[in-house]
Amino acid sequence: MPVSDPQDLFVHELKDILFAERTIEKALPKLAREAKDSQLKTHIEHHLDETRQQIANLELVFADLDMAARGQRCPGIEGLMREHDEFMKSNKDAPSRVVDTFLCGAASRTEHYEIAAYTGLVSTAHALGKAEIADLLRQNLEQETAMLEKATRTHDRLVGTQLPG
């Protein structure tokens, strides 16, 4: 779909983040299985529930726009998923603390990507006079920001336990 105005760009970005959220929803159970740290596992499992709510919020946004909730391929999220898969494949025998630390970093990279997307979407929704849509998107943004904080704290704890003395 050609993008010729801010409304078109808004829809393009909505489709992009919907694809990303659905991709993440499929990946999170695998990440939870890979995580050995109980707190990290809990954070990932909780974020799966949040991701499902985020998808539901996006579906409401599309309904409000009288559009089908169809995603559009998101090369950014695909790249992040590919990076994860390549690391895990080439580091099968890494200690669990290393894997958990990597998973925290992977989560942080993903959350930063989503935070950037939702920040722009909230701003654009306001500019387009769509306050209710902006509120739904802000809910998603707040959840992504909270998950980033959890991943960062867990990462710092895991790295801290590796340092001598």
Q: Layout of SSEs?
A:
Elements: H1 6-34, H2 38-64, H3 75-90, H4 96-127, H5 131-162
Helix pairs in contact: 1-2, 1-3, 1-4, 2-5, 3-4, 4-5
CATH topology: Ferritin
Number of helices: 5
Largest sheet: none
Using the 3D structure, state the CATH architecture.
Up-down Bundle
What shape does the CA trace take?
A: elongated
- Summarize the helix and strand pattern as letters: HHHHH
In CATH, the homologous superfamily goes by the name Ferritin, core subunit, four-helix bundle
Q: How many whole angstroms does the radius of gyration measure? A: 17 Å
Task: Give an overview of the whole structure.
- The protein has a single domain, classed as Ferritin, core subunit, four-helix bundle (Ferritin).
- The chain is built from five helices and no strands.
- Helix 1 runs parallel beside helix 3.
- The chain is elongated and about 50 Å long.
Short characterization:
The protein has helices at residues 6-34, 38-64, 75-90, 96-127, 131-162. By secondary structure, the protein is mainly α.
Tag the structure with descriptive keywords:
5 helices, Ferritin, 165 residues, elongated
